[in-house]
Every structure is written in C-alpha cells, then in structure tokens.
Amino acid sequence: MAEEGFIQMYVRDFTLMAARAETGQDVEAALTRRVREARDHAVIMDARKTPGHLDAVIERVREESQRKLFPGRGPDTPEERQRRGDFLTRVAEMLGA
Q1: Which of 73, 69, 59, 71 is nearest to 8 (CA)?
Q2: What pLDDT, on the 0 to 100 scale, is given for residue 16?
Q3: How far apart (Å, rounded) are the C-alpha atoms in residues 65 and 59?
Q4: How far apart are CA 20 and CA 33, in angstroms?
Q5: Beta strands of the chain (E only): which ranges?
Q6: Taking the model in full, what pTM does it have?
Q7: Contact in structure between 31 and 24 (CB atoms under 8 Å)
Q8: What's the number of CA atoms in the CB half-sphere (13 Å) around residue 79?
Q9: Are 21 and 87 in contact (CB under 8 A)?
Q10: 37: which of 43, 44, 80, 94 is 20 to 30 A away, CA to CA?
Q11: Per-residue pLDDT tens for 34-59?
Q12: Which portions of the chain have biased composition (kind: Basic and acidic residues) (predicted)?
C-alpha cells in the first residue's frame, strides 16, 4: 500500500500548480520537473516500501480533477472547474506516460 504522505505531497503540489496556472502564471517548467521528480521518487518508494506509489498518485490526481469544491476557495465558475480539471487530467496523463 502506498504511503499516504507521499500521495498527499504530490497531489497538493499539482493542485497548487493548477491554481497558479489559473491565475496566468507559467507553470510548465515546474510541472515538467515535478512530474519527473514524482516518477523518480515513486521508484525509490516502491523499492523501499511497497509497489504502487505512482499509480496511487495518478489515481488521486484524477479524483481531484473531478472535485467540485476546493477548501479555502470561494465558489468556482463551471469554466474554472473545467480548466482545473483539464489541467489535473493532463498531469495524470503525464505521470502515466
């Protein structure tokens, strides 16, 4: 079973990047770097703990892409939810590639 702290760390980072992208910040270089770090780190965690860390992050990112409400934020428009969902879906695809 994947370590929950590992999953939360990467999902939090990717959802923060989605929010930054929403404000117009360029996050592509940071996103590419963080995806690479997540993959590399998952290999290490799988070897030291149990397999499945990257798959667990991908699954949780996909779940986050479907969320309607985000704690600490006001109500989102449907367009904002769609953009954030699209961003996180793309992250999940990048992780799985």
Answers
A1: 59
A2: 92
A3: 10
A4: 16
A5: none
A6: 0.89
A7: no
A8: 1
A9: yes
A10: 80
A11: 999 999 999 999 999 999 999 999 99
A12: 76-87
